[in-house]
């Protein structure tokens, strides 16, 4: 959790299931763009890495359209197939990676969280903040 990634290929991170904590660990490890799937409408966004929200169903997308980037429910609704949806997601990733703001960024969302593990929550938070600050120094911010 929250360790630097120093090799290419598939990486598995053991992290808590709480959205802000899990994503903070990914960013601390070097992720610079988060693809976040939600079926219930989690109002999560991260900094300094933008979060792209992928809504799994159309009714939820319609309720929260101001915070959802892509309606993946279009596949279930028969509006497109998986390959077409994959292309939509890929093209949106490229736009966000090129500087376009995600919906979460436009709303000003920037959550993070420290895990409750280690000697104390405070110590874990201090370690994670120190790592996060190092990440910012190496990579700049997106503000």
If you average the pLDDT, what whole number results? 83
Strand content bin: 5-15%
N-C termini distance: 25 Å
Helix content: 40-55%
- Strand ordering within the main sheet: 1-2-3
Q: In terms of per-residue confidence, which ranges show pLDDT below 50 for 5 or more consecutive residues?
A: none
Structural class: mainly alpha
Number of domains: 1
Rg over CA atoms:
16 Å
Shape annotation: globular
- Tally of helical segments: 6
Counted beta strands: 3
Textual characterization of the structure:
- The chain is mainly alpha-helical and 143 residues long.
- The chain has one domain.
- Helices cover 42% and strands 8% of the residues.
- The chain has six helices and three strands.
- The chain has a three-stranded parallel beta sheet with strand order 1-2-3.
- β2 (51-55), α2 and β3 (70-71) form a beta-alpha-beta unit.
- The longest helix is centred in the last third of the chain and has 19 residues, at 121-139.
- It is globular and about 45 Å long.
List keywords for this structure.
3 strands; 42% helix; 3-stranded parallel beta sheet; 143 residues; mainly alpha
Describe what is shown at a glance.
With 143 residues, the chain is mainly α. The chain has 6 helices and 3 strands, in the order H-E-E-H-E-H-H-H-H.
